Amino acid sequence: MTGNRWMQRLWLGAVLVLAGCATQKVQTPAAVDHGLLPPRGTTTELNETPQQRDQRMAWWRAAKFGMFIHWGVYSVPAGTYQGRQIPGLGEWIMNRAKIPCAVYQQFAKEFNPVQYDPDAWAALAQEAGMKYIIITAKHHDGFCMFPTQASKWNIVDATPYGKDVIGPLADAARRHGLHFGLYYSQAQDWNNPGGAAIGGHWDKAQDAKTMDDYIDQIAVPQVREILTRYRPAVLWWDTPRDMTKARADKLRALLALDPGVITNNRLGAGYKGDTETPEQRIPATGFKNRDWETCMTINGTWGYKSYDKNWKSSDDLIRKLCDIASKGGNFLLNVGPTSQGIIPQPEVDRLRAIGQWMKVNGEAIYDTTASPFPKLAFGRCTKRVTESGTTLYLLVFTWPSDGNLLLPGLGNEVTSATILASGASLPMSHPADGLVVHVTGKAPDPVVSVIKVKIKGMPDLSPLAGH
Fold first, then answer.
1. Minimal CA–CA distance to 335: which of 121, 110, 63, 172?
2. Beta strands of 346-460 (E only): which ranges?
C-alpha cells in the first residue's frame, strides 16, 4: 500500500467514525476495497482525473453482468389488492391501487422471509456468471430492508422477521467474490411524510411534512447509514421526482463518505453520475463516451407478482447479454423474491442456463469492449485489446448456411481463428471486402456460438465495413 493510499484510508476511517455516531450500532459487514479515491465534490462532478476515474470504474467495466433484486413488503400482496389484480409493476401496487398508508403498512405484519438464504442467493448469482449484486435497500413505498434510526417503517421494527437482510447479503456476496451494491429511492416515498409521489399524494398522512423535511429527516440520514454500514460498491438512485439542486446536493455530499462508490444518472438536478441506465431496452448503438447498464426484468415486473408468468427464455436472455456487451454496456438482470425469501424457480432456471453458457463462453463477455463493426450479418462481436494485438469474439446467432462468416472491411493481418469452446482452428481467407472465417457442420452452440479471432494491432476497417 502506498503512502498516499494509506493517508486516504486514514482520512476515510476518521469520517466513518464520526458518521457512525449517527447510525445504529449493528454489526458491520466486511468491507471491500473498490478503489478509494480523494473526496468527491458536492456541487460539481467528480474531482478526479481521467486515470482515477478509469481506476474507480475498472471492476464495473470488466464485470458486464450483474443481479438486480427488487424485494420488499410489496411481495406480500404480490400484485393483488382487495381481490383485484392491480395493473402495473408489482412494487408499485401501493401507488397504482392508491392504498392508504395505514392499510399498506399492515402488509409488513405478513412479511416474514424465514426461507431467506443470502448465501444461496449469492451462489446463484455466481453460478449465473454475474459479478455483482444490487438490492433495493428502500423502494418507493419507503420500506427499509435494513434497520434505520430515521423511521420505524423498516424490516426490524415493522415485521415479525425483525432482522436486517442487507448486511447478510453483503457478507455473502463478498464471500462469493461478488461486488455488492444498493438501490435507494431518494425522492419517491409513499409512507414517510413529505416524500414525492408520481401522480401526487392520495393520503393526507403523506402531507404531514414537506419534501425538504423528508430529505433532511429521512433520505439524508438513511443514505448516510447505508454508506457507512454496508460500504456499497454501487449506489443506484431512482426516479428523481421533485429533486431540486439543493436537495440533490445534500445527498451528493454524503458520497465523500465512500469515494470509491459508483453512482448512476438518476439522482436528479442534472447530475449525470457515472452510468446511464436504459430500462427494459437495449440502445441501438450504446452510449458514446458514457458507461451504461441496461436493467431488465426476466418476466414483466421487478417486484414479485404471483400471476406474472411472462418469462423471457434463457436463449433470449443470453442473446440480450451478448447484444449489450457488443455495444459496450453491462446487463443488470432482475429477480423478484417472494415474501418468504424465495427466488421464483423460473428465474433460477434461467439464471442457471445463462451460467452454463457463460462457463464456456464467458471469455467473450467479461472485460471486453464494444464491437468495431457497425453491423454483422451473423450476430454480434466484442473485442479485447492488449499490447500484443486485438482479440475479436464473434458471437454467432445465425450459423451461416454457406459456411462463411464475413468481417466486412477488416484489413488487419490475422494470426488465428478458433472455436472458443473447443479450440479447434478454422481456415480463413482475406478477399477485398474483408476477412472471411470458414466454418462447417452444425453450430457448436444452439444459442450463440463464439469464434475467437486474433489480429495484429487495432481493428482497421475500410469505409465498406458494415455495408
1. 121
2. 379-386, 389-396, 404-408, 414-419, 428-429, 434-438, 449-455
Cα 370 to Cα 387: distance, rounded to the nearest angstrom: 18
Distance CA 222, CA 156 (A): 14
**How large a percentage of the chain has pLDDT more than 70?**
89
Nearest to 243 by CA among 214, 263, 282: 214
- Backbone phi and psi for residue 112, each to the nearest 5 degrees, phi listed first: -140, 80
The helix or strand, by DSSP H or E, that contains position 102, with its residue range, turns out to be helix 101-104
Query: CATH 2.60.40.1180 occupies which residues in the chain?
Result: 379-455
Burial annotation 332-353 (CB, 10 A radius, 16+ → b, else e): bbbbbbbbebbbbeebbebbeb
Q: Give the number of other Cβ atoms within 10 Å of residue 402's Cβ.
A: 9
How far apart CA 69 and CA 335 sit, in angstroms, is 5
DSSP 8-state class, residue 2: -
Q: Which fold has domain 379-455?
A: Immunoglobulin-like (2.60.40)
The answer to whether residues 346 and 437 touch, using CB atoms and an 8 Å cutoff, is no
**Is 14's pLDDT higher than 80?**
no
Cα Rg of the chain, angstroms = 24
pLDDT tens digit sequence for 354-400: 999 999 999 999 999 999 999 999 999 999 999 999 999 999 999 99
Residues 146, 175: Cα–Cα separation, whole Å:
20
**What is the distance between the alpha carbons of residues 75 and 88, in angstroms, rounded to a whole number?**
14
3-state class (DSSP) for residue 107: helix
Decide which of 44 and 285 is more confident.
285
53 by Cβ neighbours in 10 Å (0-12 / 13-18 / 19+) ranks as middle
Q: Using CA atoms, how far apart are residues 118 and 14, in angstroms rounded to an integer?
A: 31
Amino acid at site 409: G
Helical H segments across 231-344, by residue range: 245-253, 314-326
47-364 in CATH: which number? 3.20.20.80
Do residues 368 and 393 lie in contact, with contact meaning Cβ atoms separated by under 8 Å? yes
User: Which residue's C-alpha cell is 467474490?
Assistant: 177
* pTM of the full structure: 0.91
Name the packing angle between helices 314-326 and 345-361 (round to 10°).
50
